[in-house]
Design brief:
The protein is α+β, with helices and mostly antiparallel strands and 134 residues long. Helices cover 33% and strands 16% of the residues. InterPro entries: Nucleotide-bd_a/b_plait_sf (IPR012677), RBD_domain_sf (IPR035979), RRM_dom (IPR000504).
Length: 134
């Protein structure tokens, strides 16, 4: 498993099962692997892997500066609809439209990444209530 796909969740009930975790995080997308480590049975993690993970987390936080959250979307809105509206204020490099796996419709929110921090800030300030039509 690559560090970029690793997420750690701590302080969970000892009654939590893998199915509980899959169900709870299903809205995030496909889950490839889950390890549940209970207190007293944790394996020692290689220090280099931990450091690599921390560097990955720092990089992700830095990339978040280029990203904005867009909520209240019509359930039929598409990535192309979002790109069309938000490209007016900057270069949209990535659109993550959160989808419901059962209905195949979007969940009403998305994350958009821009080429620069300035473009993301501009989108946030200039497009407070954009109209995204499907």
């Amino acid at each position: 498993m690559s560090p970029s796909s690793y997420t750690e969740v701590a302080s969970v009930s000892p009654n939590v099962t893998k199915k509980n975790v899959y169900d709870f995080f299903a809205f995030c997308g496909a889950i490839k692997h889950i390890d549940i480590v209970t207190e007293g049975h944790a394996e020692i993690v290689d220090a280099a892997k931990k450091e690599e993970h921390h560097e990955d987390v720092k990089e992700k936080l830095k990339r978040k500066e280029f990203e904005i959250f867009v909520g209240g979307l019509d359930k039929d809105a598409t990535e192309d609809d979002l790109r069309k509206v938000f490209s007016e204020v900057g270069n949209v490099t990535d659109v993550r439209l959160m989808m419901n796996p059962q209905t195949k419709k979007n969940k009403g929110f998305a994350f958009l990444r821009f080429a620069t921090v300035e473009q993301a800030k501009r989108a946030f300030t200039e497009l407070k209530n954009p109209l995204v039509l499907p």
